[in-house]
Amino acid sequence: MRLRLESHGTNFDKRAVLREHPIFRVLGPDLIERLASYARTKTVAAGTTIFARGDAGASLFAVCAGTVKITNRSLDGRDAVFNLINVGEIFGEIALLDGGPRTADALAMTDCELMVIDRREFVPLVESRPDIALKLIEVLCGKLRHTSEQIEDMMFLDLPTRLAKTLLRLANNAKLSSQGRVTITQREIGQIIGMSRESTNKQLRVWEQQKWLRLERGGVVVLAPDPLAEIANAGLLVD
């Protein structure tokens, strides 16, 4: 399913979203109002492809509700999950800034509410406000660091360490409730850490028996983050 261009009457406050985002909060009330007037809002059903690799990068997206998965597929059909974008985060900024095609696929993991800002409105604002450009650079550098860390983890860390780090990061980024639930499938976790679903499930089952987590349909509930943090911090090397 591909994202349609029409809006569906979302109920969030665009101005509040902009005021609370680290990139846009440096703007004054007048510019917030101006940017909010340009922004479009969309409701996206779970499973919808928001954009695909190679699409024209004409818009920046902010997640106001739900979770978006950034992924790519190899020529032989294998999927790799690069990131999960949660409430308050943005995506699609690379193609928006350089005008090139999308570098990955964006898929709605859950029902999502998105705010969309077009390139023709956003780029002149960045050009006129160096502080906005600096904030964008910070966001891009953070994502680059995350990607580099993912590559290093897959090259140097063993499965338990990779898995523990990933679960803790997902839990932190999702700003979970006290129940500690990560909404993600075991296959998607495996795609993030570069392991098969079977290997990932085997390790998750071990930790479930130790009551460190609980496996649910479409999710994992983290019950004991401390032992997972010990494994993640140990940084065991692959033999």
In whole angstroms, the N-to-C terminal distance is: 43 Å
User: What oligomeric state best describes the polypeptide chains here?
Assistant: single chain
Characterize the main sheet. 4 strands, antiparallel
What general outline do the C-alpha atoms trace? elongated
Overall pLDDT level: 83
Radius of gyration: 19 Å
What would CATH call the architecture of the largest domain?
Sandwich
> What would the CATH topology of the largest domain be?
Jelly Rolls
- The strand line-up of the biggest sheet is 1-8-3-6
Poorly predicted parts: 1-10
For the secondary structure, the number of strands is 11
The CATH class of the largest domain is identified as Mainly Beta
> What would you call the structural class?
alpha+beta
Question: How many helices?
Answer: 9
Helix content: 40-55%
Could you spell the SSE succession in H and E letters?
Answer: HHEEEEEEHEEHHHEHHEEH
How many domains? The number is 2
Strand content: 15-25%
How would you name the CATH homologous superfamily of the largest domain?
Answer: Jelly Rolls
Descriptive report:
- By secondary structure, the chain is of the alpha+beta class.
- The protein folds into two domains: 133 residues, Jelly Rolls; 78 residues, Arc Repressor Mutant, subunit A.
- Helix content is 44%, strand content 21%.
- The strands form three sheets. Strands 1-8-3-6 form a four-stranded antiparallel sheet.
- A hairpin with a 2-residue loop joins strand 10 and strand 11.
